[in-house]
Known about the structure:
By secondary structure, the protein is an alpha/beta fold. It contains 22 helices and 19 strands. Strands 3, 4, 5, 6, 9, 10, 11, 12 and 13 form a 9-stranded mixed beta sheet that branches.
Amino acid sequence: xxxxLLATRFKLLxxxxxxxxxxxxxxxxxxxxxxxxxLDGNIFQFLGIFxxxxxxxxxxxxFFLIPFVLYLWLVPNRIYTKKWHRFFLYGLVLLTITLLIxxxxxxxxxxxxxxxxxxxxxxxxxxxxxxxxxxxxxSYPIVKLLIGIFILSIFALLLTKKYIKxxxxxxxTFKWRTLIxxxxxxxxxxxxxxxxxxxxxxxxxxxxxxxxxxGMYDFGAAFFNNQLDYDKFYKTEAVADIFNTVKKDxxxxxxxxxxxxxxxRTITYPGPQKNYNxxxxxxxxxxxxxxxxxxxxxxxxxxxDSLANQGLFFSNLFATGTRTVRxxxxxxxxxxxxxxxxxxxxPNNEGRFSLGNVLKSKGYTTQYLYGGYGYFDNMNYFFSNxxxxxxxxxxITDEKDIHYENIWGVADEDLFTLAIKxxxxxxxxxxxxxxxxxxxxxxxxxxxxxxxIDIPSHTNRAGAVKYTDYAIGKFINxxxxxxxxxxxxxxxxxxxxxxxxxxxxxxxxxxRIPMIIYAxxxxxxxxxxxxxxxxxxxxxxxxxxxxxxxxxxxxxxxxNTPASQRRAFISTYxxxxxxxxNKLIILSPQQKVEAFAVDSTSFATTLLKSAPxxxxxxxxxxxxxxxxxxxxxxxxxx
Length: 638
């Protein structure tokens, strides 16, 4: 029967399937060789990578073959057997081959950047085509790549041409074509309804698990799971229990509501409010590993290293996530990173309890400054609806103020020029100001004005880091002559790390980011090495300003928190981590909970049987945060 089937037009499906599997195998093999030093050298791990990979490739192929099945089913025999019709088939197969090879090349570059198959980042990028296409165009030799892909596709077509044009010795009636096509069309439906890319999670080594995946299939999974309902996918506890657990961490606080689902409390500091200006610089992708303080020997952050010595340096601070929007969420809402999208990009995110809203209610001018166009990642909408005035690239109207710009925005030095002009205007209002400044230059394509540093533009990440360091150093020096300088606290902190790739699901060390609080007239130099979460930045800064307020923030004023209570949150869009007492709890979909011991020096993890107290705390924080957002209880009320 199978032999007879191969003598029909449906032989084309076998040819296309084989090509899909071949391209997918070569893609996986290339990535496997590239990442070989990150694997465990275990033969069973290698078998898992390629056998589970074949399974995932086959699942993906059921969707890729849909147009071919429809075509082979519906085209009449009298047309299909015409000689001229072969050229249509050649074109259809050539298009398929080109797409597969183009995807393979794209996967290589995505892996090179993120060390993972397509995931939620790729889904996010699909939305902002202008920036993403521009970034790709400026980063890679696109024309040469496209020409190479097309030539390779033509060559592959020539190799399969004789099979495509082979005469059909067993024409099928429409009835028989229907009996064959319908089951084949049912397969992708079943895969969509019941399939999952979870099979790739066969190893604790994340490189191995990602290699076992299929990029296009993983993209589809990320697209449909970009929003995750915590209560549906994660382990939960009774609502009363989770809020009671969280409230214990705020022992001694004066809670304002008898409601079970509330952590609203009064924060009181003795003495009057200190109306210092606050400038919060969130730096794109500033991993801790770039700074000399964390052992870097490249000397690419001389200005930040100097500021670290002159200011208060935080050496044990952890980012909540792997995207800019996660950092912005933590630095504005002081909120644990709930699963799926960042709150910055979610619908109905207006009027949240934010740092901007709190300081605005205390008489501050509050602003968000960005060197690109703020529609990207929904920044304009989020900040303008949560207590900030948004000032973005469109505010720079004089081209003389732009020394360089790429698809992401103006060079950091030009953003800081805009910032200083804004601060000068703020000063004339005779009221304190809070401004968050978001940089962009430390981002692929790693381009910046020439002649600023000793690494040419468009060279590598190290050059972009060193240029951003230069721009920050210049900015601080330019501020020193301003009348508002001595009354201003500068906070320099990363939005997230440059890379979160690692052998484990949540490689803790890669989430460590630097923070410097610099204010020579206000803050004494020093080093704070206590465990700190990115969500602790907001209440800590309010404490430094001696602002008494009603709080819904989940973060701590870290200077007024016992070491035994300090914890950090780290996450991907699915895996939620809770770090405390040298242990890491990871919450994952399907109600999965795992506990790990953490080496305090290397941050290496070892699986534990359980850690019930910390597991309960982790569930309480993430579930309660999700609950408050879903029920619109994390709102700001004057």
